[in-house]
Amino acid sequence: QVQLVESGGGLARPGGSLRLTCTISGDTFDYYRIGWFRQAPGKEREGVSCTSNTDGVTYYLDSVKGRFTTAIDNSKKMVYLEMNGLKSEDTANYYCATEGGFCPPIWNKEWEYTNWGVGTQVTVFS
Prior knowledge:
By secondary structure, the chain is an all-beta fold. The chain has strands at residues 2-7, 10-12, 18-26, 32-39, 46-52, 59-60, 68-73, 78-83, 92-100, 115-116, 120-124. The strands form two sheets. Strands 2, 4, 5, 6, 9, 10 and 11 form a seven-stranded mixed β-sheet that branches. A hairpin with a 4-residue loop joins strand 7 and strand 8 (78-83). The N and C termini lie far apart (40 Å).
């Protein structure tokens, strides 16, 4: 089984930055994708990004493009989500999720990922 653990959440001011880390352990595929999702109270879970260690293609939610960056350190089995220019609407519980293979064109669907972490809270508050 694959285990995912998110870390790095916390409190940030508007315009501030946080870096989330997803640490992967267990029986991973040689080729895999990592999705970041977030969910705020009363709102649907939405895909934030998808990247993989296969073809280098990365996708982002439109509202975070230019502010968030995700990257994989394959040797360490760690995935990062660098969040800059944070806004109040970024407040949510953030989850990482993984599945074998590359990011599909329709990447932001929960059923495209089998294994999930339990989340880390990000709060942007002035």
